[in-house]
Write the structure tokens for this entry.
Amino acid sequence: MLGTVKIGILSDTHGKFATALHAVQLLQQQGVDMLIHCGDVGDESVLDTLAGGAPAHFVFGNNDFDQGRIKDFANQHQMLCLEAAGTFEMAEKTISVTHGDSRRLIESVLTASPGVHYLLTGHTHQKHDQLISVGEKTVRRINPGALFRTPRPSVAVLDLINDRLSFFHLGSP
């Protein structure tokens, strides 16, 4: 048995440092091996909460206006900016990430990477875990919910080895 390989997933922080910090601490307590931010980071302070622990990747969302400054900060702190969308491999799984505000981009990501197992998105501020058909294949689309403009801020942890997803709601920071 291989054990676990866990990804901590968060989205839609919109520059809310204290909430982002609380979320990252919660994810770290779950023993995540990587952090993925699905867009609408807001500013460098949120990326600062991701720095220094598990490796972190992120995409830009439709409310990430100063992308150059955010990307420069990420590069200085060894975080991977996937721009509007990106795909990577971990634990023999292919994972694509995009904010979720562009149906065309989602379709492009899924057709460009036919072996995708997971599509991580944000944007809607509503958590979900659904299977979507892509040709003859099924992809698991996960949205961790949001950390801003939501009555119940949430994040998610995906265990890639066991294909288990857990949602966590944040209490007060």
In short: The mean pLDDT is 94. The helical segments are 17-29, 44-50, 67-76, 103-112. The first helix runs from residue 17 to 29. The longest strand covers residues 128-134.
